[in-house]
Amino acid sequence: QVQLVESGGGLVQAGGSLRLSCLASGNIFSMHAMGWYRQATGKQRELVARIISGGVTNVADSVKGRFTVSKDNAKNTMYLQMNSLKPEDTAVYYCNALLQTRLYDAVAEYWGQGTQVTVSS
Predict the structure, then answer these.
(1) What secondary structure letter does DSSP report for 14?
(2) Among residues 41, 67, 81, 83, which is most buried (max CB within 10 A)?
(3) For residues 90, 92, 97 and 98, what is the CA-based torsion angle, rounded to 10 degrees?
(4) Which are the contacts of 104, defined by CB distance < 8 A and separation ≥ 6?
């Protein structure tokens, strides 16, 4: 059983900052990638940023220069530092992981329950 638990969401004024955390726990043999997605009301879920095994990161153009993704492997925790927040960043932010639970198992995808980020103008 694998769990992804997000924390750190909340209400912030435009221009402010928030840091999201995602703790991965359970039977994790190999973590291939972790990422942050977001879904605003009435819109499709979109990739915000991800970090691949080895430390390679991808960040969406819409948040480049404002958001930074990082990971503490020892704590199995991924972070999303969000600066210069804009009202259009308002969404539910989801943690995503691609991992194996055992050596010869296929890579499986897991999602957290989501955390609300609201940016007021």
Answers:
(1) T
(2) 67
(3) -90
(4) none
Q: Which helix (H) or strand (E) holds 98?
A: strand 91-100
Q: How would you classify residue 84: left for phi > 0, otherwise alpha for psi between -120 and 50, otherwise beta?
A: left
Q: What is the dihedral of CA 100, 117, 71, 43, to 10 degrees?
A: 50
Measured CA distances, 101 to 1, 4, 90, 107 (Å): 8, 14, 33, 8
Contact indicator for 2, 110 with CB cutoff of 8 Å: yes
Give residue 49's pLDDT.
Answer: 98
Q: Give the type of residue at 111.
A: W
Tokens representing residue 111 in the block: 């999602």
What single letter denotes the amino acid at residue 79?
Y
Both tokens assigned to 66: 């404002």
Q: Is the pLDDT of residue 86 over 90?
A: yes
55: pLDDT strictly greater than 90 = no
Residue type, 106: A
